[in-house]
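Researcher: Sequence recovery benchmark, item below. Answer with residues only.
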């Protein structure tokens, strides 16, 4: 199980074991920067190739994401501040340390500075993200997805027998 955006990888003899290992690795990364203090993550594998990571502290999880992305790109706080139009380094650092909770607009701005290829997406908890390498069967399905993605996606997967009821808590 791999979550590139957090720089975390877990493996095991089963998918569940890999997800458990991934959760432990994410917690280890979090603990490198400050005590866990009750911070928990849940890793869920939908069985179809998508991994969901949730937390009892989404602000801290977001802070981890920002820090991991900045460090992966070997950017300093000054580099990020410059990309954000000369904002103070300490302002960005507060988000990265979890001391400030970003609004949705601010989170998009922060991501654009440290990881422009990432975007914020609001999806149903039961949705399956289609990997880029997975082909769509035909032009009609693609047109339906482009017109109205959520109902078309659900209908396509129901038709293929790929939907499952799941609860991520």
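Model:
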């Amino acid at each position: 199980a791999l979550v590139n955006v957090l720089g975390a990888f877990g493996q095991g003899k089963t998918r569940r074991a890999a997800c458990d290992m991934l959760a432990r690795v994410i917690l280890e990364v979090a603990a490198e920067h400050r005590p866990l203090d009750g911070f928990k993550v849940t890793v869920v594998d939908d069985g179809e190739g998508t991994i969901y990571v949730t937390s009892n502290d989404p602000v801290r999880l977001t802070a981890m994401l920002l820090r991991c992305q900045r460090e992966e790109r070997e950017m300093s706080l000054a580099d990020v501040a410059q990309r954000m139009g000369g904002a103070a380094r300490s302002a960005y650092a507060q988000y990265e340390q979890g001391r400030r909770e970003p609004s949705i607009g601010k989170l998009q701005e922060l991501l654009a500075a440290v990881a422009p290829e990432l975007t914020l997406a609001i999806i149903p908890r039961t949705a399956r993200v289609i990997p880029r390498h997975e082909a769509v069967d035909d032009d009609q399905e693609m047109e339906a997805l482009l017109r109205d993605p959520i109902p078309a996606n659900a209908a396509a997967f129901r038709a293929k027998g790929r939907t499952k009821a799941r609860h991520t808590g």
